[in-house]
Amino acid sequence: MVTKKKPVHRSRPTNPDRRAKGMNAPRKAFWAPAAMAFLIAVITWMAFAPALNNDFTNWDDETYVKNNPLVTTKDAGLREIFSTPVSLNYHPLTILTLKWNYRTAELNPYSYHLTNVWLHVLNTLMIFLFIFLLTRDNTFIASFSALIFGIHPMHVESVAWISERKDVLYVFFLIPALICYLRYAETKNWFWYAAALTLFIASCLSKAMAVVFPLLLLLIDFFSNRKITSRIFTEKIPFLAISLIIGVLAFRIQSAGAVADLSTFTLAQRMLFACYGAMMYLFRFFVPVNLSAFYPYPSLNDQGMLPVAYYAMPVLFIMLIASIWLLKKERAYVTGMLFYLLTVALVLQFISVGNAIMADRYSYLAYTGPAFLAGWYLHSWFLKKRNISEIAASLAMMAIFSIVLVPQTRARCMVWKNSETLWSDVISKYPMKVETAYRNRGNYYGQTNQTDKAYADYMTLLRMGTSESKVYSNLGNVYAMRKNLDSALWAYQRAIQLDSTNANAHFNCAITYLGLGQYDQAAVEAQKGVQINPANDKGFGMLGFALLNTGKYRECVNAYSRQLELNGNNGDAYLYRAQAYRALGDTAAANRDHAVAMRFGKTIPSN
Known about the structure:
- By secondary structure, the protein is mostly helical.
- Helices cover 68% and strands 1% of the residues.
- It folds into 2 domains: 34-291 and 303-383 and 398-415, no CATH class; 467-599, Serine Threonine Protein Phosphatase 5, Tetratricopeptide repeat, CATH 1.25.40.10.
């Protein structure tokens, strides 16, 4: 009697010896994959080494690090860090790592960049291990997937941008969690399950995008051909519960400002944007050209229509989904494509977040899917049709792709050198389209006393029809630096018209009035400023000086007293309050303040 052989699934290369002896059979010699992983780590380090010489940028780095009291003050403890969102995001573990950088190096950017690069290298090694275990010790697929993940130019934003620490950190926990789940699925040892759950929680506390983790577990079950039982679903319940909690929390926090009003774009337009993002991230995996820190939304034509390319994207997206269905028996294809779609789905602008249609950083974890898929089919092409060893094929692929991608990645790291290089790159690709680029570059020029360049960028923003109050406020600063006080006053007043709660515009307006000798108007603007920002001690100083020069001595004393409550080390405050006390006839109080002022090196003539 002839018996039919049980078919072996053709889309899963395995180690025949391990299949014959069972999953607990000894693995192949470890030296070869270990050597490949080490080589990949070195290449990845070389690709991102230029980032170590970069500075902070003025894109969120001030919010996350330089001006973040959770990072820069010793008083901020775990309770404050775990209860305070930063920039409309909840990621306390990320803030803890930034605080550690500050405690060890203060504001030396090298420390922050070094941590990011190391995390990325470690993530690359863990991607290698994850794919190696998933494919049952396939060195070629693991090597290719890890190398592409490690050196892809689209990942520069996640690594070279200090504020994007959350990307490299959440993946640093998420991939080991997947590895632990693989071990749990193989051994049924609950230690690995608990480790996966713990690492998943840490990943969620680093960035909320980790909430897709339970779906990735189901994807691993599918690829591993685990028998479908109730256990497969019940064991995901704790992961799903955590995902729901973190997801709801993240949405509520971002709804306070980061999520755009749903009326900004129609439902049809948002669907087009989502399809565009899904296909463009995939396109740039294969063709990483024209990368930018900012991709603006497209402009509508006179008929209210988007560019033609956007209407083609749903067709391509439907074809992609159809290919997954038609090739559903090809577990590798389904796994790779669904890994990509699941991890990129949350950032496809179904609900518009921010003012950019896509961002390189959103591809960080997602590219694991297409990298794995490309490695899978290259493995078939190299090793199944050619008489070549796995190690030789791996080295050949590493050489080819390193030569192509490493120079691009190094060049992209240099774009993130500082605020000028970053925003100049965006402007070169999207001239007169990205207000953020001109504003941030103008701010950088203003802070570095390059007033002519700052003026040019702010005037460009005016020609673009900006309605942002801070732009006019900063333009006023440039006018003031150029000693053009009348124009500075106009700019500050325009800033206040656009946003009456712009405290800095009120304060700067007060300073300008003081320079013009218009003390009554200076007092009015300083008063408005401190009402908006009562924690600004310098604002009370401006108010006190204006009141002193208008003869309102009692109000002047009150203003300086409030300033000294906020900052008791201001010698000028004691000096001018002494003058006000003397004018009020309170000689004793005047002498006390004068004595303190003298300790700060401040003196006034005695009557």
